[in-house]
Amino acid sequence: MDTPGKLIVGYDLCEDFTQISCFSYKRQEPVTISPAGEEDYSPIPTVLCIKQETKQWLFGEEAVICAAAGEGIRIDSILSKIITGEETVIFDQKFTGVMLLEKFLRKTLMLIKNYFPTEPITQLVVTVRDTQPALVEKIYQALSMLGIDKDRAVVMGHAGAYLYYALSQERSLWLNDVGLFDFNRQGLSYYQISFNRRVKPIVASLAKKDLTDHLSYDMLDKKEVDVGYIFKTLADTLLFKQIVSTLYFTGIGFEGGWAEKIIQSLCTGRRAFLGQNLYTKGACYAAKELSGDRKLEDYILLNDEMITSSIGIRLYADAKMTEVPLTEAAIPWYEVNKSIEVIPEDEAEIELVIKNIITREVLRERLVPSHLPERPKRMTRLEINLTCTSSSEAKITVTDRGFGAFYPETGRVWEFLLEI
Known about the structure:
Layout: E1 8-13, E2 17-24, E3 29-33, E4 44-45, E5 48-51, E6 57-59, H1 60-68, E7 72-75, H2 78-84, E8 88-90, E9 93-95, H3 97-109, E10 123-128, H4 133-145, E11 153-157, H5 158-167, E12 177-184, E13 187-196, E14 202-210, H6 227-239, E15 244-250, H7 260-265, E16 271-274, H8 278-290, E17 299-302, E18 309-317, E19 320-327, E20 337-342, E21 350-356, E22 362-367, E23 382-390, E24 393-400, E25 413-419
Parallel strand pairs: 1-10, 10-11, 12-15, 14-17, 15-16
Antiparallel strand pairs: 1-2, 2-3, 2-4, 5-6, 5-7, 8-9, 12-13, 13-14, 18-19, 18-21, 20-23, 21-22, 23-24, 24-25
């Protein structure tokens, strides 16, 4: 693999399996790697094992084999342990989920050294199926333990990785909408990318439909269930009167060949691709964009995790009214966290400006914290913090910070919820 001076990594981290890819500037595409070598698409089991005799840590298939032979202690469900806070005791030593993830990340990322022995990682994107804020933050913590901080690491959901993957293919594949069927142990989902080309920059937005109630993974083992008929009915219904240029199919649910003829029937008038490394390659394309090597600067990529509005606050500064940005649009809601301190002139009125990048609508919201402590003019300092509770709701927290030693802070807090 070539070494262009940039090491761009896409990492698909799932509860059961993990995949890694690096961007090849010679081939101008991500190359998937594994313990078996470059372009071996076999996923790496998200499993650790400690050998009984040597206390050596193993990972992936080697860990599975060692544990199955009774020669070591198997550790799996690492992401679940992080979410639940469960600790694992091994040889009288406690390990948190973050500690286990750090060991797994360290072991798997060492595979890259086979191709880039001296290059530090320029940009890494980790994509996960579940973007619970608690999990995302713990992944960042584990990466930080490896010396990879947020300045060169991003965690995003599978939907975001799919967006980057689809828009990094040749243009003819996304002249119209683009669809993805994902069938894994969690069930069947359908994602469709649509484009609003009437605005600049062009907005590529993603909509998701969960179809698990109609077709679940365990149905594959039920002989009395015609999964082929169910899937084709669902697909035909979803695609009816839809102008879709390309369809992608991914997930272990499509293995076994049962869906091949159905996929062929869905190819009439459109292209179709079946593969198991879409998300790791999408994360790699995302890392390339985020590293500054951009090809999608004329597009805004929106998925269901992202806020669709920018939010600013109107302030008097430098002898004039100005708008200070608190967050831009097209950012995952769980990553929005901005604080600013202000000194009210008279009334502590907070004016927010909310601009929707899809509808171009501009809203102004005025928030007034009630019953502020009585102090002389310009002797109150307020901390304003913006976070989001979902992709459609923002939370503004206002905290009284007093004014130095003259007027101690009261600790009084006001909270406001806004639809965005």
